[in-house]
User: Fold EAL domain-containing protein from Pseudoalteromonas rhizosphaerae.
Amino acid sequence: MQNKVELSSALDAKTEQLSIINQFSSSLLQLDKLDELFNYVTTEVVKRLGFVDCVIYIADESATTLHEVASMGVSPTNSNYAIERKTIAFNQGITGYVASTGSAVIIGDVSTDSRYIADVRPAMSELCVPLVYKQQVLGVIDCEHPVRNYFSDAHLEILTTVAHLLSAKINQVNTVENLQQTVSKLNAAQKLEGTLLQIANLTYQANDLDTFLEALHGIMTNLLRADNFLVGLYNKNIDILDIVYIVEEGVRSNAHKKISKEQLKHTASYYLLNSEQPLLLNKKEYQQHINDGHFKMVGRQSESWLGVPFKVSDHISGVIVVQSYDKTHHYNDHDRTLLTYVSRQISMAIDRQLSRQALEHRALHDELTGLANRSLLIDRIKHGILRLTRTPKGRYHALLYLDFDRFKSINDSLGHEVGDHFLIAICKLIKGTIRNTDTFARLGGDEFAIFMENITHKNQVNDALKRIKKVLAEPLNIDGHLLQASTSIGVAFCENENDKAYQLLQHADAAMYEAKSTGRGQVRFFNNTMRKKLKSHADIENDLQHGIEHNEFELYYQPIFAIQQCNVVGFEALVRWHHPRKGFVSPNDFISIAEHTGQIINLDLHLLDLAGKQIAAWQQQGKRFLRVTVNVSSRHFASIDFISQIHAIYNKYELALGSLCLEITESGLIENLELATKIIEGLAPLKVKLCLDDFGTGYSSLGYLHQLPIHVLKIDKSFIDRLKDTATPLVDAILSLASSLKLDVVAEGIETQEQLAILQKTQCDFGQGFLKAKPLPADQAILLIDKPL
Assistant:
């Protein structure tokens, strides 16, 4: 009977035990927060198991220390239950032992156990089980009792099972929390990445700094609090900080504020610029810097201050600053990293803007003088003309076209460096004479223009001309050379909104050429005579291409003869234009226009083709070898294509080598001597000879003779005209020079028997002139080759 009672009691105890465990299991499943879990377990253990206390300790990440997270107990007094030991090392006391070994213990009498450490209320027995998940100790559940041998195996079994359930739940909650944190971090990272990408795109898309900073600030608010935000640019050259963007209490101020060095040196921004390091300060740290004399208090002190310096160029740096006046919001290291990134984007945006401005400046200004270029001048003229519609009557504009006299001779004789310095000095002087509203531009070479807007009287132009003449009156010392500057000036006016910029420039240019033709330092105003001349030039320019396409040009051939025997050795091909409306047009009336417009290239190639065709015809007729020389522009010697163009003519007509040759005038000699030499050498296989016309009338004949592979010199007609009784010293010198350089010489413009007789007594090889023959059509010229002239 006793056995039945004991068995019944055991079954009842087991049932109660299972009920308790089932209740714990069911309740733990419904709880998702750790603090709720811990409080539930400690409360239920005390309540359901009849314990006087229960404490849960959780291990730290290093698994060296236990920290109390929940406790429950029956206090012997009315005061709330509390434990003394909130933190226990793994090697301290019974609790620490269980944590370090991962094994549960029941101690019937703690007084006999040296590991026991008494708490506020000493105990006699202790039950301690570990919280273990997958062999990792998460913590312990510790229960003490003032009665010896209070805890039973049943208690141990229940508490161990509860510990297993709680350990699994802790792991589940931690896993969920970790996942949530990971998702949160991923979302934050995506948001950060997207925001940073927005900023990067903005950096490369924004063209205006103000618009860029406004958009940047809007994007930044997604990253950090920026209710108080400023960007300042510091120019070291002038010691001024320009606050280019500022927001205070969320309100933007549109006014730029410039802080001079006197004011700036007392600010935190200046300290930041000098330190060249990001600065993150709380209120106390900010005050400490003030106490240390690094800067002074300017305005209201913030709770948190974050500033980052950045560099744009050698002389421009900047600062970006955010401030918080909210005691609950302080910036951190993450914010500093973000602001550093933003500062770099600002730096790049400003650098791009400065680079763009520099490119725009270079695109619209002359590199040597810094003046406006032709493109900018025309743009200013166009805008000036448009403004005439809104200006009072009686106002107009003037354009002064300047060409510096004898600049080419200075360039050729003293070198380009001296020439450049000469131009710079002249421009500086002239710039000091004009109004701030005037546009001073370099059009190219030694040609310049001054656009004067809103003129009310022509005396204003006359006064400007007098000022220019006055500043150029004294010689200039340029690199040790005393040089006299003077300029030929053409003036044209623009009076109504229907005028065109290109026409004003054209009119002033025409007036300048008129001034230049009358001598140095002259001024001419555009007039109707010049207008008619321009009209004629424009007509010729329009008709030139038509003339080429419709074979209106013809070559006449003037014989070149041996001075001694007077037999014909070749011809100079001279162009004639039979205009369908104007009749015969003199080369003097269209060659210079073709040269000016660039049409000379096509015209020369057309004439070379005509000459090649005629030479081929003479060769087919069995005529003896004759050399035909064609005048060409020096423009051809600026393009390597000229070699293939001449080769093509030789191949097209199967010309005898050396039968088609080239002549250039000294006044139009080549600027790029290296390229010109390559071109002439490229024609050497064809035995093409290069003849230099008008020798002795230019500025630098000897230099060209030494540097270019020239074969023939032509003595200018002006020297032949002076031959009286005997050769002049200058003609003798040219002949002597040609002999020493092994060059052939042609005397052109021989018109009298006396001139021929004098030349026959010299070393002159060949002659040309009306005395023997004028330029003739091909069929008449060829008849002169069979006998001496």
The longest helix spans residues 153-205. Confidence is low (pLDDT under 50) at residues 1-8.
